[in-house]
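User: two proteins, same treatment. go.

Assistant:
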Amino acid sequence: MSSMSDRIKKKARARRMHRIKKLLTFMLIISIPIGIWHLVHQPYFAYGSIQIEGTNKLTVDEVLSLGEGKKPINLFTLDRERIEEALRHDVRFQQVSSEYVLPGILKLKLVERKPALYLQNAHKNYVMLDYQGLVMNVTNGIPSDNAPMLVGIACGDMYIGDTIEDTKLLGLLTFLRDVGTATVDQFAEIAITDKQQVRIQLRDGLYIILGDLAEVTSKTQIFCTVYNEIKNKQLGAKYIDFTYKKPYVKLDENLAPKLLQGVNQ
């Protein structure tokens, strides 16, 4: 009987040991990833790098600050969604995207906002607008000539991050966007007369009478056709008047009429 009892006890101990081994194995399997996760989230752990494309106005240190991280860079602790959200509210950038690429790189792709024009607000400060009417900056003076000055109209109390609601002014910005930045870069000043007529002074002296402010978007195609023709053929125009059904081009010299064929169509 004692021998049988010993065998039963031995089998019971074996089953207990087997269960203990299974439990220990399970705990080991669970603890390894937990330990690794805990390790890679330590402040001293370094992993990965950050690449910024499309701008030189943002530094890696600023990105780390936005993502609640610090050096050494650790992509495991960096809050990518927080970084994107912060940059989407940064008026310097129009588009923001990010992705992880091997080996261990967080790549930020940014598109900078382009200034469309300057105009004064109610406090005589200068407001920089982008092509969507968003206020990019407000300064006491015009910091650079990277956009034309708009005179004859003010925008009221506008601050950084605000968006204008004046439909006529938004129409003018749409016109500027559609004619292209290469052309707008040649505009020195845009004036709105008392009768809401648009006049544009170019840097090379060319003067453009565009017409009614409320109708500028309808002039985009004909403006581009005539302006590009004048520039490509180097006709030396003094001014172009788009208030006529067929735009009138005043030349510096008495050029042959055949040079204007196709211009006033």
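Protein 2:
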Amino acid sequence: MKNTKLKVALLLLALGFIFIVLDVEVATGLDYPNKYQNTDKLSGEYQYYNIRTNYGATCTYKMIDDKKYASEKEFESKPIETHNPKSSDGEQAKSKTVTIKVIDDVYYNGIHIDVLPDILGFIFIIIGCLLLKKCSRRFGLTILTALGGLIICALLYSLPFFMNGVMLCHAAFIIGFVYMFANIFTLYLAMTSLLAMIPGVVCRDERKWSKITWVGMLATFIVATFTHWLGADFGMLYTLSNIGYAILLFLIILFWYILLRARHYINKSYIEAYSK
């Protein structure tokens, strides 16, 4: 593989893969212009998961009496209940009350930035695809989805500057889902565009194993994303998400290792496309 532009394009695409799927956030010491407005219309858990996952947050807890939970547990453990005439109604009601810990208020924990910013990852993919656009029409589609992902990413992280409370939580949740699928489609199109550069029977194994690795990347990315969201208040799930991201990084490296086994044919496709 002697062509410099081709090498640069592949390097940018590889970096784009890593920057988009991996997040390493650090605090900046700066604060959002407004404090987060807690609301009773949404559960504390839902608010905390969304705000911490996307923007960084802390929370306080409170203890509440959950009679419904207590009744369900009592029904499970005591299917046949006998009335004790010696106990008062107040004592019986008290025995059926369970105190549980829930999230009370959510607070911003300062503005966080991603050391591996997704926006930069999309820019890398756009530039890489522009350098390889003549090799496959799919690179053009990848550019469009990457542009869409870039815009959605910028919108998602700018929400706290003009939204708050209920509207912010719902918007962050919905846009976050759309953003996740934008990531998936962008990386999928980039992968299929690269595989289009190694056609023929000779590269059949590379295409097969690259696709298998991609399926593993997709499954790991989805699991890691959801465990990271739920892990905002569960240390075990947060650790599981970090393990998932480590596996994801390994699969990305494996994908590129398998793909570059066919670098001779990638170079050949590039020369044929740009010599016309």
